[in-house]
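ok here's YCII-related domain-containing protein:
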Amino acid sequence: MIIIILNYVVPVEEIDAHRGPHLAWLHEAAASGRLLFAGRQVPLTGGMIAVRGTREEAEAWARTDPFAIHNLAEYRFIEVAPSVLGPGLEALAG
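and the structure:
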């Protein structure tokens, strides 16, 4: 699993102007099974996305994010190998 941390580099008003296409991009990934979850940080300084696949796949996919295309956020990628999971999350193992 790859955790992608987004940090906004522009005002939130500019982020919000591109949020519709960004959400469509996330929903497409959810429908394909790639996306595990996504959400905004609190306070609103960026977001977090968890995806299946390799780091290389996640980096290539993230380059297609409307936020990346318009240089609205910086991306950090963290590979995680879950070892302890709560009930109902067994599918995240391995």
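+1. The chain has a mean pLDDT of 95.
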